[in-house]
Specification:
By secondary structure, the chain is mainly beta. It has 6 helices and 48 strands. Strands 4, 17, 18, 19, 20, 21, 22, 23, 25 and 36 form a 10-stranded antiparallel β-sheet that branches. Strands 5, 9, 12, 13, 16 and 24 form a 6-stranded antiparallel β-sheet that branches. Strands 2-3-37-28-34 form a 5-stranded antiparallel β-sheet, with no helix packed on it. Strand 19 and strand 20 form a beta hairpin.
Length: 694
């Protein structure tokens, strides 16, 4: 053999015997799965809106308050002011009475022979001769304990003279005058006054001033004597004089005024209640006030009451005392009382009949005498201001009248949760419009409009894509009976239900539009058919008419792009602690019991929620196996491969959370399937990864 051939063979042998370099590989499928998750019916639809039938078929049941019609006001806010001025002419000075007497002994002191005869025969029975007496002394009458002076516009004085002498008197010359001014108030000559007879006469005092110190003067009197009859001479026998003042209307006075009524006024106040005839209301807010300003130098007692306004059975009343005014000055008292919670009878005074919307007030003002002399003039007064401030009611009783209201509302809705943006074709939709009446009167309801819209905001509903309801009952009137009162005095409502379905409306189109908003226009008519007033009706400001949308949607449908997702924690270095992975494939194993299939994207997120990238697969999740009725009867297993390049591996190393982003659809846009509470989608993420050491 040639040497070079041996060398060549040796080289070939050496080369052929050298072992291949080993590239380490890691089969992750043999290890614990990286991520496992289950998506069920709750990930597609909101659990709170779901019900299932006996077979487990899921339906979306949705209730939403579409409109609420509350009374604007039971009564129009009432503010009413009243003034009452009490002047001196309204004050009763009473009927002061002054009494005095002139004795036979006083007349006998005139020093005449007849006077001496009378004194000598005092206590004896004898014949009394006739005589004429000219008394020289005035007789004072002191009335200062009652008044000091009264200047009158009008007034009367009544004089009574009683003869207690044993003989007839004639030509009695009598006068009464003021002591200080000397003004003669009364002057009279009485022709004849028999024993025990009383003379009475009333004199005008118009324009006069009466002083508290008066003088009575008996200028002269005569008697024909006892004739042939003997009489007992008794010097203590008297002529009694009584002076009474009546019907006094003063321009000024300094007097002690007795307890008396200054004002006793009853006034009606009417509230505005549109066409209603209310028998009572309960006050929501408001106050009643009393302001008094007095120039009277005595205490004034005031009682301002509303007899028909009661709380816990106690009538409303303001009791106040206005203190005496200082000389030449004024005193005042201001009071305001909250009447929230009071019940006010609105049928007027007890003597009234067939009166509504009216309550009455009583103002009682009086002087509580202090027993002191006080000065008053015609200019003295008590100015009273009373009234009601911002009275509103939250309950009303009686005939509510006729009224029309309209509720034009926009309400946000969310029927399908994650199906919100899905193109969906429903097999059947059932809707009940429920009207709940809390008003104690029959209400007629008319639905004028129901509109669904997928606008982004309420303001854009008219510009958004909208679907209008067509329904055989649109624009018709439906009557809701009157509510009743419970034992707790709260409304027990009545209700009315109207059913809409595919046989009488295009309801499915409204719902399939996946609306964000419903716009409704509902009219209500109070007592529209009531021919005679019913005074047993009631209304509460916090209760009105509620309109509810009760929607039932069986999940028997066809749909495209049902979007669901699930976020799971992810720790890359639990599978590649040294970070040697350069490429490979993630595998997603799905077990699908939903009647629809689709695609899955894996979204990579870091701790801050920043999106690092998306892993996609050309493989699909196959739908579960369904029967002819559209029900899933068997889960179907699918494997989705997600190839990883170097950049995606680097992103995977930074990932702390992954999102399974699933987009599903029914097998055919026209083939409807059914969704049951037992349906699910299980997904397990594992890997077929190659780790290279160099």
């Amino acid at each position: 053999m040639k040497p070079y051939i041996s060398i060549l063979l040796l080289a070939i042998l050496v080369v052929s015997c050298k072992p291949d370099p080993k590239i380490p590989k890691w089969d992750v499928e043999a290890l614990t799965p990286l991520v496992s998750t289950r998506m069920d019916i709750g990930d597609i639809l909101a659990d709170s809106n779901l019900v299932t039938d006996a077979n487990g078929l899921v339906s979306v049941v949705y209730q939403n308050r579409l409109a609420t019609i509350l009374p604007d006001e039971i009564i129009r806010p009432l503010s009413a002011d009243f003034e009452n001025t009490i002047k001196l002419k309204d004050i009763d000075l009473g009927s002061p009475t002054i009494s005095d007497a002139i004795s036979l002994g006083f007349i006998a002191k005139d020093g005449t022979a007849m006077g001496q005869f009378i004194v000598y025969n005092n206590g004896k029975k004898t014949i009394l001769p006739g005589f004429t007496s000219l008394p020289k002394k005035d007789f004072p009458i002191d009335a200062t304990s009652i008044f000091q002076s009264i200047s009158l516009i009008t007034g009367e004085m009544t004089i009574e003279i009683q003869n207690d002498f044993p003989v007839m008197l004639t030509d009695i010359n009598f006068n009464l005058k003021n002591k200080n001014s000397g003004t003669v108030l009364v002057q009279k000559i009485i022709d004849t006054l028999r024993p025990q007879q009383t003379y009475t006469e009333t004199f005008s005092l118009n324009g006069l001033t009466i002083e508290g110190n008066l003088i009575t003067k008996l200028a002269s009197l005569s008697t024909p004597g006892s004739g042939q009859d003997s009489v007992v001479i008794d010097t203590s026998r008297k002529i009694f004089i009584t002076v009474s003042l009546d019907n006094l209307v003063p321009s000024s006075a300094t007097a002690i005024f007795p307890d008396q009524i200054l004002a006793n006024d009853t006034a009606d106040t009417e509230i505005e209640a549109a066409s209603a005839q209310l028998t009572s209301v309960k006050v929501k807010s408001g106050s009643i006030y009393l302001n008094a300003t007095s120039t009277i130098e005595d205490q004034i007692s005031l009682d301002y009451s509303v007899p028909g306004a009661k709380q816990n059975g106690i009538p409303f009343s303001i009791l106040e005392n206005v203190p005496p005014a200082p000389p030449g000055g004024t005193s005042s008292k201001n009071t305001s009382v909250d009447i929230s919670g009071f019940n006010i009878d609105l049928t007027g005074r007890p003597t009234y009949s067939n009166i509504y919307n009216t309550f009455y007030t009583i103002l009682l003002g009086k002087i509580d005498s202090t027993g002191n002399l006080i000065n008053l003039s015609l200019q003295d007064s008590v100015l009273l201001q009373t009234g009601v401030t911002k009275l509103t009611a939250n309950e009303g009783y009686g005939y509510l009248g006729k009224d029309t209201s309209t509720a034009d509302d926009i309400n946000e809705v969310d029927f399908f949760g994650n199906l919100q943006n899905v193109n969906i074709d429903l097999e059947e939709v059932k809707l009940k419009l429920e009207f709940v009446n809390h008003i104690g009167a029959p209400i007629d309801i008319q639905i004028d409009q129901l509109l669904s819209s997928n606008a982004n905001s309420p303001q854009g509903i008219n510009q958004g894509n909208s679907t209008a309801l067509t329904w055989t009952g649109l624009g018709s009137l439906y009557t809701i009976p009157a509510a009743t009162l419970s034992v707790l005095n709260t409304p027990t409502p009545s209700s009315l239900e109207l059913t809409l379905d595919k046989n009488n409306s295009n309801l499915d189109k409204l719902v399939e539009a996946n609306p964000n908003f419903f716009k409704t226009k509902v009219g209500s008519f109070l007592n529209r058919s009531t021919t005679t007033p019913d005074y047993n009706q009631f209304i509460f400001s916090n209760y009105g008419i509620d309109t509810y949308l009760n929607l039932e949607i069986p999940m028997h449908f066809a749909a495209t792009d049902i979007h669901i997702s699930d976020t799971t924690a992810f720790d890359y270095f639990s599978l590649d602690k040294d970070g040697q992975l350069q490429q490979g494939t993630l595998k997603l194993i799905s077990k699908n019991h939903f009647p629809f299939g689709g695609t899955v994207d894996i979204i990579l997120l870091n701790d801050d929620g920043v999106r690092l990238g998306t892993l996609s697969s050309s493989d699909r999740v196959l739908p579960g196996k369904t029967n002819n009725a559209g029900k899933t009867i068997e889960e179907v297993r699918s494997i989705l491969n997600f190839p990883l390049n170097a950049k995606q591996v680097e992103n995977l190393k930074k990932t702390t959370r992954i999102v399974m982003d699933v987009h599903l659809q029914t097998p055919s846009p026209t083939e409807k399937v059914k969704l049951y509470d037992s349906d699910y989608l299980d997904m397990t993420l594992s890997g077929d990864l190659t780790i290279r050491t160099r």
